[in-house]
Write a structure and sequence with these properties.
Keywords: Signal. This protein has 207 residues and is α+β, with helices and mostly antiparallel strands. It has 3 helices and 10 strands. The chain is 17% helix and 30% strand. Helix 2 runs antiparallel to helix 3.
Length: 207
């Protein structure tokens, strides 16, 4: 099913598997590490609605900086996958992130520029106690119940010291449009766990 949502002078085209999980084409790229999954899982845990038991649609194809056309992961806004707007270069976007979040180092910025151009495919659910079902090419699982939100992630940029990370995540909420937004999250690792230390919004609906 295709559902069209308008907001902030941009149009989002979402492939919503509301009844059946549809297969979709996606490009295979470099695989994701365990640390990549853990960073994304931390964000999903933080964003999952309190008290909910509904499954989250997790796109298997990662978002990239590509625009017109964007990477085919079931989501598009303004001709891009949400990581940037079509009139903003990846370099300008990363500079904005560094300015808004001073803890984002030059190394992390450069890694984000690289990771944001590499398409990857999730092969399993994120390691967190949140009900999920994967959505993408070749996936045959179906949700146990109607999903209330979707999760579109980029490849995380993880510093050489393995203690700092930056990731883009787009959230689409079918219950509250104002909670549909794209953000870059900055995380630090402490005591063996990733902790969100800051975020920057790149787009938001319903505002």
């Amino acid at each position: 099913m295709r559902k069209l949502i308008s907001g902030l002078a941009a149009v989002i085209c979402l492939a919503l598997p509301l009844h059946l999980l549809a297969a979709q084409e996606s490009s295979k790229g470099t695989g994701l590490s365990q640390a990549d999954y853990e960073v994304a899982a931390t964000v999903l845990q933080a964003e999952y609605p309190a008290g909910s038991n509904k499954p989250v649609l997790v796109a298997t194809q990662t978002a990239t900086f590509d625009c017109n056309p964007p990477v085919d992961n079931g989501f598009a806004i303004g001709g891009c996958s949400g990581m940037r707007s079509a009139d903003t270069t990846p370099e300008a976007l990363v500079e904005r992130l560094s300015s808004a979040m001073p803890s984002v180092t030059v190394e992390l910025s450069k890694k984000m520029l690289h990771e944001g151009q590499v398409p990857s495919t999730l092969t399993h659910a994120l390691p967190v106690n949140v009900p999920q079902f994967l959505y993408g090419k070749g996936v045959t699982e179906k949700p146990a119940s109607q999903p209330e939100m979707a999760f579109y992630m980029s490849r995380p940029a993880i510093a050489t010291d393995r203690g700092h990370a930056l990731i883009y995540v787009g959230i689409v909420s079918w219950l509250d449009q104002s909670k549909s937004m794209g953000r870059y999250f900055y995380l630090e690792k402490s005591g063996g766990h990733w902790i969100i230390k800051g975020h920057v919004v790149t787009w938001q609906l319903g505002t």
